[in-house]
Amino acid sequence: MLDYNPEDLDVKISELLVATSDASDPELPAAVAELLKLIRTKLGMDVAFVSEITDGRRVFKAVDSETGFEPHLEAGMSGPVESSWCQRVVEGRLPEVMKDAAPYVASGQAPDPGFPIGTHLSTPVRMPDGSVYGTLCCFSRGVRAQTDIDLLRRTAHVLAAKLGTGTDKR
Questions:
Q1: Whose CA is closest to 103, among 90, 83, 120, 123?
Q2: What pLDDT, on a 0 to 100 scale, did the predictor assign at position 11?
Q3: pLDDT, position 4
């Protein structure tokens, strides 16, 4: 008899990342796209992504969006880190949980993304050596009641551990 529920999301996250072969992608495990879909769906969000902060840029490394979400976001897209919400969360200038992000945009604390963001969750992906790889984020256009930042934090921790093994980057 199992001492855990194999349908539990935390178990799925760990199994997907642990089972992913290091040879599949030396930088980001291929299972991350599936993890993002699981997280996005569980939390009822429109978009979930992992970003890397590098060389003054915030780079989308993996993205999962609700079908038809516009503007279209995809892996490889990037922008200046100083204008990203990700950097502000890493620095503590924005909270990890914004149940309603509109007041942050209206006050100038968060840059206007050009489309409405209701609920926004973001947490740093900290490597085993303490450096920041980037962030794990999800957001919706509307305000959502469910905001499980602990799920994102646990996932970011497991992802960072996976990224910290077998790479010489960090």
A1: 120
A2: 57
A3: 42
Amino acid 164 reads: G
48 closest CA partner among 151, 140, 129:
140
The answer to whether the CB of 125 falls within 8 A of the CB of 159 is: yes
pTM value > 0.70: yes
User: Contact, 63 vs 36, CB < 8 A?
Assistant: yes
Candidates 3.30.450.40, 1.20.970.10, 3.40.50.1100, 1.10.540.10; CATH matching 9-163: 3.30.450.40
Residues 32, 43, 149, CA angle at the centre, nearest 5°? 80
Residue 144 confidence (pLDDT): 92
pLDDT single digits (tens) 38-58 = 999 999 999 999 999 999 999
> Helices (DSSP H) in 50-101: which residue ranges?
85-91
